[in-house]
Design a protein that fits this description.
Radius of gyration: 20 Å
Strand content: 5-15%
Largest sheet: 4 strands, mixed
Distance between the termini: 46 Å
Number of helices: 10
Helix content: 55-70%
Oligomer: single chain
Strand order of the largest sheet: 2-1-4-3
Number of strands: 4
């Protein structure tokens, strides 16, 4: 569809803008990548395997739906927002920015190869603008499943963060709170491993959840009774009511 084409075109322009004047290199050790980088590579790996199997069985509609979902939802909606945090701070941490850009470009170019049989012209145009190593997507190698791109624990961790972000956004939307209005976010859980997930992902979780500060704790100590909440498996998310709305105006 036109909306889908526009979405991946805009994603490619964002990547190209950030690539300008930079030499991006593949990380020496994929295990050193951030959780969100491993998450998108692991998702891509699954799509490569499943979509290829579907195509070999002539299940073309099922295959393209999986590629569409990956590019539209996982890459363009979620991963780009996660990666932006490091791209904004490229001068402070060049390696982190390089890893984000390499992962972005890799995920999009491999996704374009899967999409090429269905949308040949726009995928060719974007592919040739994104990289110089191969002259055409038509003669590029078909993506293959890689065991080293399997990161099950990171997939689980980022899916947990996504669920929390959805809960926060749903609460804020129901209260008509604009994204520009930040609020403190409390993550309350007795599960140490779950709190560890949020500890390691604080930076991009705060950005996606419009948080002024992220506090991790095992109980509701210090959280006001009127705090609004969202519930995810094994945890509750709280935001102070007074930080979300102007109480005087509401009255």
């Amino acid at each position: 569809s036109r909306n889908f084409a526009n979405k991946i075109w805009n994603a490619s322009r964002f990547i190209m803008m950030n690539l300008e004047g930079k030499t991006v290199t593949e990380p020496e050790n994929l295990n050193d990548l951030c959780a969100e980088d491993k998450w998108i590579l692991s998702h891509l790996n699954t799509v490569i395997r499943e979509a290829t199997e579907n195509m070999e069985k002539y299940e073309l509609g099922i295959a393209v739906q999986k590629v569409y979902d990956f590019l539209w939802d996982e890459l363009c909606d979620w991963y780009i927002e996660m990666a932006k945090v490091r791209l904004w701070k490229a001068e402070e941490d060049p390696k982190a920015a390089n890893d984000a850009l390499w992962t972005l470009r890799t995920a999009l170019t491999e996704g374009l190869k899967l999409l090429h049989p269905y949308m040949p012209f726009i995928t060719e145009e974007i592919f040739c603008n994104l990289q110089d190593e191969e002259p055409s997507i038509m003669i590029s190698s078909w993506p293959v499943y890689k065991e080293e791109w399997n990161f099950a624990s990171e997939e689980n961790a980022v899916e947990t963060i996504k669920e929390a972000v959805r809960g926060i956004r749903n609460v804020r939307t129901s209260m008509n709170v604009p994204p520009s209005k930040k609020a403190k976010v409390y993550v309350v859980s007795e599960d140490e491993s779950l709190l560890g997930i949020f500890e390691h992902s604080k930076v991009f979780f705060a950005t996606l959840g419009y948080a002024s500060e992220v506090c991790l704790q095992k109980d509701k100590t210090g959280i006001a009774d009127d705090a609004v909440s969202a519930v995810i498996p094994k945890a509750a998310i709280y935001m102070p009511f007074a930080e979300l709305v102007d109480i005087d105006k509401e009255i």
